[in-house]
Amino acid sequence: MSDTEAAARPAVKLTLLTLTAMVVGSMVGAGVFSLPRRFAQETGVAGALIAWAVAGAGMLMLAFVFQTLAVRRPDLDAGVYAYAKAGFGEYLGFFAAFGYWASACVGNVTYWVLIMSTVGAVAPVLGDGDTVTAVVISSAGLWGFFLLIRRGVKEAAAINRIVTAAKIVPIVFFVILSLFYFEPSVFADNFFGADYAGSLFNQVRGTMLATVFVFLGVEGASVYSRHAKRREDVGRATVLGFLSVFAVFASVTIVSYGLLPMAEIADLRQPSMAGVLESAVGTWGEVFISVGLIVSVLGAYLAWTLMAAEVLFVAAKDKDMPRFLARSTAADVPDNALLMTTCLSQVVLVVTLFSEDAFNFALDLTSALSLIPFLLAAAFAAKIARRPGLPDVVGRSTRGELVVALVATAYTVFLLYAAGLKFVLVSFILYAPATVLFVKSRREQGRRVFSPGEAAICAVTVAGAAVGLAALAVGWIEL
Q1: CA distance 186 to 200
Q2: Mean pLDDT of 356-365
Q3: Inter-axis angle of helices 272-281 and 231-256, to 10 degrees?
Q4: Which of 354, 358, 412 lies closest to 99 in space, CA to CA?
Q5: What is the Cα–Cα distance from 237 to 178, expressed in whole angstroms?
Q6: pTM greater than 0.90 (yes/no)
Q7: What is the DSSP letter of 393?
Q8: Are 270 and 118 within 8 A, CB to CB?
């Protein structure tokens, strides 16, 4: 079958249930199994409660933003990227597409690192998921999933629904069982944090990227908007998916403080949820959580890889990426976009060999890369909410939508501050060379490469990348 015939075939149509499962499946991944240690390294109970309140409110506003935009602009597919382009031009739209895609690719690497670290508890040759052997095995899994997904979106989505249901069980079981072994005195000792945690503000700031990581996927339904049976289902799935997992994420973190001292949790190997449960019930608890993590990682990897390829594919169809990325198979799979996604994940996987803490580095970089796309989407929602004469959407007036969009925008700006200069510079190092794809696309169309404004943005990006490389070279920042 030719590419033209394949493109003419109707896309797989997804229901509200399927879209919600995809959102939950992409959100409930490796991150939740690593939360106890990551939070304990930064904050006590008080800081964790504040961090979850800030993150929950901010991400809920972003969920509302995606819900509203799905109905306001049903003409825009692949949400995050399309919203940035519609609001702020092709070059920033390109950056949003690339940043979101790169974030998903780096996020996939965290999954392989964590699953190797899990097996490393019984196979020391795998270490913490960052040894040569671990990278080789992870690479085999990475390309195995490439072959699976290439069979078709429909089959992959069906597998994801099954995996989503399976991986929720050990997480809920962990929370319930932890309540039976909960020690109020330990919880009280952990309330204000250990001596190394610093001020309450620094504790909250230090956990922000971790909360972003576990909430990535809240925009998943908007990415698949072209497959939805009804546009209204995109927004509903976004909010339902977010609300269904928020309580679980917060609970996993908070109950852990009632089982072990904060410093001991901070020293656990990943997945730290397994170590916390082992301290309460013994070895079988660690095994149970470890098996649950493996299932969770495989499901989340599937969802994230699909979303990443979808963004590249739609951007290429809109002529904002080179045309070779717009090719799809008879099974409606964007195969070249999928191949490019797998290749970047492979490169980042090798880079983890040179990182001091492979998992935390990949986690933070994943979050940092997603912030620019989120910021542009929230700002676009604020921009269109100011237009008079728009009908009400999902029970909110345009004034209410403006408030929601402004709060979401302020939240993402705060996240950029919380990320710190290190990850902003590392992000520039990835963004700058990606401009080659934008240039190639413009030349394929016989168009001028940059407008004056785009040239200025490109200059800032290249300068930021140069500073980032210099900082790495002299040791100012480390991987």
Answers
A1: 19
A2: 76
A3: 50
A4: 412
A5: 30
A6: no
A7: B
A8: yes
Question: What secondary structure does DSSP assign to 341-379, as a single string?
Answer: HHHHHHHHHHHGGG-SSHHHHHHHHHHHHHHHHHHHHHH
Instruction: Return the amino acid letter for 221.
Output: A
- β-pair partners for 228: 14
Measured in whole angstroms, the distance separating CA 346 from the mean position of its chain's CA atoms is 17
* Helical segments of 28-89, H only: 30-40, 45-72, 79-88
**Amino acid sitting at position 387:** R
**Burial of 406 by CB count in 10 Å (0-12 exposed, 13-18 middle, 19+ buried)?**
middle
- Residues in contact with 79: Cβ distance below 8 Å, sequence separation at least 6, in sequence order: 66, 69, 70, 219, 222, 223, 225, 234, 377
Determine the Cα–Cα distance for residues 68 and 82; give it in Å rounded to an integer. Answer: 14
Which structure tokens are listed for 364? 């933070």
What is the per-residue pLDDT across 184-203, written as a single tens digit (0 to 9) for each? 888 988 888 777 777 888 88
Segment 246-275 mean pLDDT = 86
Average pLDDT over residues 77-96: 80
Q: How far apart are CA 331 and CA 150, in angstroms?
A: 8
pLDDT score, position 124: 85
